[in-house]
Amino acid sequence: MSGTVRWGVLATGGIAAAFTEDLRSMPDMEVVAVASRTETSAQAFAERFGIPRAYGSWAALAADDDIDVVYVATPHSAHREAAALCLEAGKHVLCEKAFTLDAREADELVKLARDRGLFLMEAMWTYCNPVIRRMTELVRDGAIGEIRTVQADFGLAGPFGPEHRLRDRALGGGALLDLGVYPVSFAQLLLGEPDRVQADAVLSPEGVDLHTAMLLGWSEAGASALLNCSIVADTPQTAAVTGSKGRIEFPRGFFYPERFVLHRPGHEPEEFTAGTAGTGGGALRGLQFEQAEVARALRAGETESPLVPLDGSLAVMRTLDAVRDRIGVHYPADGLTRG
């Protein structure tokens, strides 16, 4: 692929708006169409962002021959349906996180993309951030020695009423899939898939998790991670990685960081920022890092991103499944349903 990357946006909610706003200032990229379940919603979104075409069905967007790649921004309960529709129509796909409702659905999407030879990526923008990339380089190069612990949390105070999508079991509601995916993905970026999963949660009357605490373990590495997510508490939203020779600390907003601090015995604290990360892209912001990675991969003819590999997304979904199994959160359509 060469020239302008032509995007279709599937869904018209808040994250779709943020994505479209960021993409408008990206070079050699444009949104050429948007789709919603209703033509009214799609048309309003198109008028807001100056998008040429608006569709009142997902199928119409998937059939548009002028689209190179579709950004799926629905609630995660619809990710599999929407992404599969686009892949079956021959479109490359960037799909929001959590990747799907469960690991079974994620595996189906990955197999479909690989069978069709199409690009598929989970929209884990954190992994594409140059500050996070610099952190992983330092850890890989032994800057803090062997990892011993990872701590991360992401909580919002709300309040979210029973009618909100975060409280809707049919939409995959709860703190874990919406917010907990960030701490889990952060830990697994560094350590891979855990072999031990423990969890505790407070559930809502609807049966979704209001707050979940997780303890993950890696026997071979001798490491553990303490992770939290919540839709009833405004947590610090920080992260820390402690190794045998030092630690790395991220301030509030660890999942879209602008800086981190490296602490090592015998050294002054070292601060790394987007401008000093050494991986380029310092002028970009937010969702543009993942947009740039998708465009790079498509132009290179790649069907997966090395920054957000599909096997990694599958591993995160397996961990989220294990956590839900332990806390007793099961959705009507998922593979964990118990009768």
**N-to-C span:** 47 Å
Which radius of gyration do the C-alpha atoms yield? 20 Å
Low-confidence parts: 277-282
- Secondary-structure element order, as H and E? EHEHEHEHEHEHHEHEEEEEEEHH
Shape: globular
Number of strands: 14
Largest sheet: 8 strands, mixed
Supply the helix-strand structural class.
alpha/beta
Mean pLDDT: 94
Total count of helical runs of at least 4 residues: 10
Question: How much strand?
Answer: 15-25%
Fraction of helical residues: 25-40%
Strand order in the largest sheet:
8-9-10-7-11-12-13-14
Polypeptide structure, described:
The structure is a single chain. Helices cover 33% and strands 24% of the residues. It has helices at 14-23, 39-49, 58-62, 79-88, 103-116, 125-128, 130-140, 175-191, 288-299, 310-327, and strands at residues 5-10, 29-35, 53-55, 69-72, 92-95, 120-122, 147-155, 196-203, 209-218, 223-230, 239-243, 246-250, 259-263, 270-273.
Draw up the topology in text.
Blueprint: E1 5-10, H1 14-23, E2 29-35, H2 39-49, E3 53-55, H3 58-62, E4 69-72, H4 79-88, E5 92-95, H5 103-116, E6 120-122, H6 125-128, H7 130-140, E7 147-155, H8 175-191, E8 196-203, E9 209-218, E10 223-230, E11 239-243, E12 246-250, E13 259-263, E14 270-273, H9 288-299, H10 310-327
Parallel strand pairs: 1-2, 1-4, 2-3, 4-5, 5-6, 7-10
Antiparallel strand pairs: 7-11, 8-9, 9-10, 11-12, 12-13, 13-14
